[in-house]
Amino acid sequence: MSIEARLLDIARPLLPSVPELPPDEARRVEDDLAGDLAAQIARLPAHLAAPFRVALVAFDLLPLLRFGRPYRALPIETQRRVVRAWSNAPIGAFRNFVKLVRSCALYTYLDHPIVTARLERAGAAADPSPSAGAGPDPSALRSGSAG
Amino acid sequence: MRAEIAIIGSGAGGAITAATLAEAGRDVLVLEEGPPVDPGVGTNTPEAMRTLYRNAGLSPIFGRVPIAFVEGRCVGGSTEVNSSFWHRPPRGALERWRDSFGVRDLGHAEIDRLLDEIEQTVRPTVTRPGELPPSSAVFRRGLEGVDTEPIETPRLQGGDASGSQFAPGAKRSMSRTYLPRAEAAGARIESGCRVRRIHHRDGRATSLSVERGRGRDRQPFEVHAETFFVCGGAIQTPALLRASGIRERIGDSLRIQPMLKAAAEFDEVLDAHRSVMPVYQLHEAESSVFLGGSVFTPGFLGMALSDRWPENESLLRAWRRMGLYYAACRGSAKGSVRAFPGTGDAIVRYSVSREDRQNLVGGLARLCDVLFAGGARCVVPGIRGRAPFRSATEAHRVLESRIAPGDLNLSTVHVSSSCPMGEVEATCPVDSHGRLRGFENVRVGDASVIPDAPGVNPQGTVMALALRNVRHFLSGAGSPS
């Protein structure tokens, strides 16, 4: 199994539902995301890359003990639970592993040109600004904010 | 390859050293590990992160609390990717460095004169009246709301709000100022060249082992020079020296300025991704804490929200009304830099002290005061599992409770002092003018020599000290007796 596929398996359940992407764009962004994440890992010096690769395999295989299937074969909701469990694990190394992948995935995904363009379009439609021109009441967008 | 003077690194210290030496008629060769900056890539895109930042931006500092650290690895070094805020060294710092480290001939008059000269080239600029970026305007309003006079920090960048912080050519970084000057005066700049080792014998460096390219395309070669300036920055300089067998007091006293970020949502559209980053900073003299604004893109916002994901996901809908801010402090502990056996890659350690933790958490509380006074609807703290604060009162209540150090989501872009200069030989491997002790022809000219964390963005301090020290070398006064 390639490192790209392993990284994308972890990243996929973390990706935001905003902005909504058409399937062809979503596929392209996911492909780029997997490639970008793998390229980032490839840039790590050996003493950091090696333990990271071990953690990647461990992350995939450890769910075998509980669910009888590796992480990659779990339904996405169960994958989310696994990620959450690692995020709150008592062992710092587990938390830090997920934190690293999650930060990189969100950064790379949200700054992908397709995603940024979609965000801009969605934002311009909902949130008026001098550069975006007139639009509906900003409160329409605000209601979506975390409570 | 041969040169009279070889300079390792082309960042703030290396570039000004190269220009000064080349303009004095010296034969200069600059070796830079990273590539030239591609104007089409910008400096904060994921592609830039992979190509212009060391380890693609993933450089951990190990310790009780892991700290994310980023530094540039390109022609121009970190000056190509930093926020380009410009500070002169604070007044108390020079006194501290003279008193505690025995740095000789370090006076305000001389440093100010050097900075006057440097500023002719890098031209620190403040925002033009009426063009304050919205993410700065809300911060300014917040500072006024807590009865603090807003003082804009100059940047080495065009002073208009519409000029994107990522626009190619917008910034007066080293690749647009001192390196072209160096080249015009005859200096050669070789990019994509990693110096693996400094060879030395009997207190004299003789040559460098250098590699161009990576992996199978790697081409090793040697560089011979009479004098070597090591200007790789506060992490790479000690790593290279130690990998070369030069270890005494090298990399033993790393200082950092740790940073805790927060995302804030406002009522108005900020579109912080379209303008320069927030230009006001607040320096709390009594606690060494400083507050300011941070670079913003949807991706950076995603990272700031990621510690409580997916609960924070819905805040993404408000991304155009959000900004990123930080509380930072002069770290009070000492870290270390070591070279990994075989590869020479840097291993960096720093353990956040109790004082650091108090300063950062206190700084975050103060930042919340400013942001809520500026009209924030909520502030998302960089603390694992903490829900967004809805008021300054709530922020203080939570931050005054016990927060485990391991829950702080820390990062830093300011590292220094891994090879401090001074005359206290027990702690300073470099003398008062940048010469490496025990070596007649090796000098250090970067943030490593700053005796301790300056408490401000350090580029101005790095450049002033590098210029001071290279002038001393040119005067001939720097030769060991």
Summarize the structure.
The complex is a heterodimer of chains A (147) and B (481). Helix content of chain A is 67%, strand content 0%. With 147 residues, chain A is mostly helical.
3D structure, described in words:
The complex is a heterodimer of chains A (147) and B (481). Chain A has one domain. With 147 residues, chain A is an all-alpha fold. Chain A has 8 helices and no strands. The C terminus of chain A is likely disordered. Helix content of chain A is 67%, strand content 0%. In chain A, α1 packs across α2 and α2 crosses α6. Chain A is globular, with a radius of gyration of 18 Å. Chain B is an alpha/beta fold and 481 residues long. Chain B has 2 domains: 218 residues, 3-Layer(bba) Sandwich (FAD/NAD(P)-binding domain), CATH 3.50.50.60; 188 residues. In chain B, 27% of the residues lie in helices and 20% in strands. Chain B contains 11 helices and 19 strands. In chain B, strands 3, 4, 10, 11, 12, 13, 16 and 17 form an 8-stranded mixed beta sheet that branches. In chain B, strands 1, 2, 5, 6, 7, 8 and 19 form a 7-stranded mixed beta sheet that branches. Chain B has a two-stranded antiparallel sheet with strand order 9-18. In chain B, α1 packs parallel to α6, α5 crosses α9 and α9 packs antiparallel against α10. The longest helix of chain B is centred in the last third of the chain and has 20 residues. Chain B is globular. Chain B starts with a strand and ends in a 7-residue tail after the last helix. The model of chain B has no long low-confidence stretch (mean pLDDT 93). Chains A and B meet through α2, α3, α6 and α7 of A and α2 and α8 of B.
